[in-house]
Amino acid sequence: MQTPDKTILPDFLNFSLDRTESESPEETDELSKARARFRRWLWGRLPGFMISLIVLITLLVILWHRVIIIINPGYNGVLFHLFSGTEVDYVYTEGLNIINPLNTMYIYETRKQLALHEFNILSNKGLTIKLSLAIRYQPEVEVLGLLHQKVGPDYLNRVIVPQIESVMRKQLGNYDAEDIYTNKEGLLTNAILLALDEVGRNYVKVEDIIIRSISMPDTIKTAIEEKLSQEELAKSYDYRLQVARKEAERLGIEAKGIHEYHSTIDQSMSPQNLRYEGIQATRELAKSQNSKVIVVGSGKDGLPLILNTE
User: Which three-class secondary structure state does DSSP give residue 185?
Assistant: First the structure.
C-alpha cells in the first residue's frame, strides 16, 4: 500500500517532520517511521471509522425519542425495564430524562381530571333510572408505579367507572323511583360516599362524584312531580291553618288582657278615690296666680270647680 501524502490528510494527522535541535539524526528517523506507520494504520481504518460514525449517528436519530424523554408539566413517568420489570419505587418527575433505549417510559397525567359518565340502574320495582355523573379524579403520584403495574394506563375504564357503577347499583336498587328521585334520607349521598371509599383502594383518588341529572320515563316523572306538588300544597294549607290558630290565640290573649285591665280600673275607681283625686285637682288649680271663677259643687260630695277667666 502506498503511503499517502500528508497534504491530503486532516490537519491533526499531519505531523511535523522537521528536525529539532535536541533530536539526533537516528531519533528523527525513528520518529518519522513511527509517524508514517501510524498514518498508514489510520488511513487503512478510516473508512470503517466513518461507517461506524454514520451508523452511530443514524441510531441516535432513530432512537432519540427512546433515549431523551421529556415529561411535560402536570405529568409523571413510570419506567419499565426490559429485564427487571416495572420500577415501582420511583416516579419520574417533569423535565428532561435520559433512559436506556431498551426500556420504556409510560407517562401519566397526574393533574385533576374530569370524566362524564351515564349509566342505568333498576329500582326495586323494575323501573329504569338513568344517572348522569361527573367524576373528578386523579392518580396518586406516590404509588404511580403500582397503579401502572396492577391496573395500567386505562385505569378510568378499568377501575373508577366500573366500581362506581357497581356500588351505586347495589345501594340504589333497593329503593323505588320516587325515593331515588327525591334523594330520600340522603340515599344518593350515602351511595356516593361508599363509591368514593371503594375506588380509593386502587391507587387513585376520586375527589367528588356529582350527580348531574336523574332521568326516568316521562309518565313516572310526571306522576312523582304531581305528587310532590300536592304534598307541597298540603303543607302550605297546614301552614296557613297554623297561622290562623296562632292569630286566634293572639286575639284571645289580647282580649283577656283588655278585660283584666278594665276590671282593675273599675276596682280602683271607688267614691273615696274619686273624691281624693278631685280634692288634689282643686288644690292645684287654687295655687295658680291667674284670676279664677269658682263654681260651688252641688250635692253632698260636690267639689268646687275653679275656671280660669283668661
Answer: helix
Length of the chain, in residues: 310
Q: Are 228 and 182 in contact (CB under 8 A)?
A: yes
Cell of 257: 288582657
Q: What is the mean pLDDT of the chain?
A: 80
Residue 293: pLDDT above 70? no
- The answer to pTM > 0.90 is no
* Alpha-carbon torsion, ordered 43, 48, 52, 55, to 10 deg: 130
Whether residue 231 lies inside any domain: the answer is no
Other residues' Cβ atoms within 10 Å of the Cβ of residue 154: 8
Predicted local confidence at residue 203, as pLDDT: 92
**Number of domains the chain contains:** 4
Q: Return the H-helix or E-strand segment holding 68.
A: strand 68-71
Residue 12 pLDDT greater than 90, yes or no: no
Domain boundary among 216, 231, 252: 216
